[in-house]
Design brief:
Radius of gyration: 15 Å
Number of helices: 5
Shape: globular
Largest sheet: 3 strands, antiparallel
Distance between the termini: 26 Å
Strand content: 5-15%
Structural class: alpha+beta
């Protein structure tokens, strides 16, 4: 091991509760593409969203308000849609609210180690 080892940040994977609404449209696991996933994660806001879901989740899935982002709703809708369409997150509709969680098992199956890198990333403001 090199002298510059870094600590591994634990990814939280909470059990899926019963009776969830059906997920919104998303690519199947076999169609996840690395360039699409990396493209979605190239935006610092989206990277931060995924990191927060991976290491700070308190529930199985979270609404946009949980993230505490000071952005217009239209901007947040765009970012969450980009993550879902890339196959990074799964979203479900709960009445008027959409909640998200990371597709940990699917992403680990296709791109082993990627989510560990995202979880270990330190945002510039920290």
């Amino acid at each position: 091991m090199s002298a510059t080892t870094r600590s591994v940040t634990a990814i939280k994977v909470l059990p899926e509760p019963a009776g969830l609404p059906q997920p919104l449209a998303e690519p199947p696991v076999e169609e996840l593409r690395l360039e699409t996933v990396l493209g979605a994660l190239s935006d610092p806001l989206r990277l931060g969203i995924v990191r927060k879901l991976l290491i700070e989740s308190q529930d199985f899935d979270h609404s946009c308000g949980w993230f505490g982002l000071d952005r217009p709703k239209s901007s947040l809708t765009h970012h969450f849609k980009a993550l879902r369409e890339a196959g990074i997150t799964r979203q479900r509709q709960y009445g008027l609210e959409r909640r998200s969680h990371v597709r940990v098992d699917d992403l680990n199956a296709r791109f082993p180690g990627l989510l560990d890198l995202v979880a270990a990333w330190t945002p510039p403001s920290e």
